[in-house]
Every structure is written in structure tokens, then in C-alpha cells.
Amino acid sequence: MLLLTIESSCDETAAAVVRDGRKVLSSIVASQVKDHAVYGGVVPEIASRKHLETIPVVIDEALHTASVSLENIEGIAVTRGPGLAGALLVGVAVAKAIAFARRLPIVGVNHIEGHIAAILLEREVAFPYVALAVSGGHTHLYRVDGIGRYTILGQTRDDAAGEAFDKVAKLLGLPYPGGVEIDRLAAGGDPRRISFPRPLLHDGSFNFSFSGLKTAVLNHVRKNPPQGDEQYLRDLCASFQAAACDVLVAKTLLAAETEGIGRVVVAGGVACNSSLRAEMAREAAARGIDLAIPSPSLCGDNAAMLAVPGDFYLSRGITDGLSLDATAVWPLDTIKRGEAA
Ligand code: ATP
Ligand code: MG
Ligand code: FE
């Protein structure tokens, strides 16, 4: 099927045209980062308004880049949740309007389901696999037995990893969004200079906790302010990043070993982090685990990733119809659609 997919769950307005859930003909992402930067974080009301302004342009561009018109589109997949309610509503309303006007089947896709399936746009990964969804709102480990068949293995008890990166960046006075900035500065820093805690590292669970680590950085910085010492700032970033990555890597690989699964997928915005990618690759190789991480453009928010589950559902006749509604909270393991297929 030729799908048009639409994503508006947070601060990226995105649309894509994808054939058969695998071949990306276009993937357009309009970031609102500049609109929120002055506030140091995403402002929900501004996000909704920006989506409204941008979404027609982004959809037109996705169709144009793919050299197709709406007449060629055979189905629509849209992010239904989780995310900001007002932001999600824009994408869902536009998707429903197109579906109604063109009499197309439509399916609402879970944003995290899109993140952990994005890798299938680049390579095959046999089921089952263990997926780490690590982003601005999630740090969750799942067992993935197929599209629509997810079991939660563990999750963060407090902050998501991306949230911790962004909060630590903020307290270090770095520009928003902070994750990328920490990654950049850490590249020239010594990860062993400051020994930050590795929360829950040895508790045997697959859960995470990042708020204590963030507080540890805050306490350290209060006692030892960077005061323009560039190298110390780099060492701080590298030391924080190493603590966060150590836990993410250890828990993910432990989950794979405990489940007896030799395949691991890392997905979501924080999967762009160079240290996480390198450490995960090194440790997975040492354990003989097949590791798959999407290219950075498919780790951050995009609409192409929705086509993998979207095509799977639509091509099996699983649709939502025009009663589809956005939902801010939608735990991935409550989806049981794959079993019906
Ligand atoms: P969710 O997917 O949980 O709904 P979201 O969609 O807002 O949340 P993403 O867009 O998937 O999250 O990821 C954004 C997060 O990724 C931000 O917290 C950002 O700081 C972080 N991030 C992006 N690049 C990097 C990087 N190189 N290093 C660390 N963190 C990064
Ligand atoms: Mg975002
Ligand atoms: Fe996301």
C-alpha cells in the first residue's frame, strides 16, 4: 500500500509517503525547536498552533517530494498518542479530514510503536527482539514479539533519559534542546573525571531512575561551578553522559539475556547519542547480541516510522474509522492488535 503518514505528538510536524511499510519515498520533518527555545522547553499551546500552521505545508511537501498526489494515496496512518493532547489533535483531525475526503482507510498508531519499528525501514530484524525506547518522554524496555505485540519489561520510575539530558543541560546553562549539546561537549571531555551515581544499576530489575543522577549533577555543580572553565564543563558533560549510558546499556543487554533473545533495538531521540551508540555496540558485540539502531534521522520524531505498523494494520483490514480520537496517555503494552492479525 502507498501510505501517507502524519506525526504531531510533540514539537515536530512531520509527514511521509511510504510504500508497503518499508520504502520511504519522502519524509519531511519541520522542527519547532526555535519557537520553544526562548522558553527553555516545549510550550503545549505554541506547539498546537505551530502544527496547525505547518501541517498543510509539510503534507504538500511530502507528496511533492515523493512525486505522488493525494489521488495515489491508499491509506493514512497518524500518531494517535501518547503526547501533548492539543498537538496530537491537529494531526488526527487533518488525517481524518483527508481520509473522509478521499474515502481512505485510516489507522491511529502509537508514537512509541513507531519509534521501535523505525529500524525496519532500514533493515530486517527478526522477532522477537528487545527494544529500548529512549526519548524525551520514555525510557522503556519492551519485548517485541511482532508488530502490535509488546510486553513491557521495565521503565523509568521518574524522569526519562532525554528529560535528564535536557534538565542537566539547562542547569549547566546550555542552550535548549540540551541533549545534543551535552553529546557535543562530552566528545571532548573525560568521562572518568567525576564519578556520578549509576542508579539501580545492580538492582536486578529492568527499571531505570534518572532524577537522582540529575540531582547529583546539580549538587556537584553548586559546589564546583564551571565559571567559564571549558574543559571542566566538557568533563562534567562526559561524566554525566557516561553514568546515564552505563545504566541504559547494562539494563538493556541484561533484559535481552534474561529473555534469551539475541536481538536488541535502540530507538527514540536519545538513540542519537554518540556515546550510547558506541557503548551499546561495544557491549552487544562482546555478548554476541545483534544490535540495530536506526540512523539518527529515524531516531528523532518523524512520520516515516509510523508506516511500519500503519501498513501492517491497514493491509490486514485493521482500521479505526472516523471515530479515531487522540489520546495523551496510551501505554504500548495495552495494544493487542498484532494478535488479531
Ligand atoms: P517521546 O518519544 O517519549 O514521546 P519525544 O518525542 O519528545 O518524546 P524524541 O523527539 O523522540 O522525544 O527525542 C527527543 C529527546 O532526545 C530530547 O530529550 C533530546 O534532548 C534527546 N536527544 C536528541 N539527540 C540527543 C543526543 N545526541 N544525545 C542525547 N539526547 C539527545
Ligand atoms: Mg521533539
Ligand atoms: Fe518521540
TrEMBL record:
Transmembrane segments: none annotated. Its cofactor is Fe(2+). InterPro entries: ATPase_NBD, Gcp-like_dom, KAE1/TsaD, TsaD. Its EC number is 2.3.1.234. Substrate binds at residues 133-137, 166, 179, 183, 273. Its main location: cytoplasm. Binds 1 Fe(2+) ion per subunit. It comes from the Bacteria. This is tRNA N6-adenosine threonylcarbamoyltransferase. It comes from Geobacter benzoatilyticus.
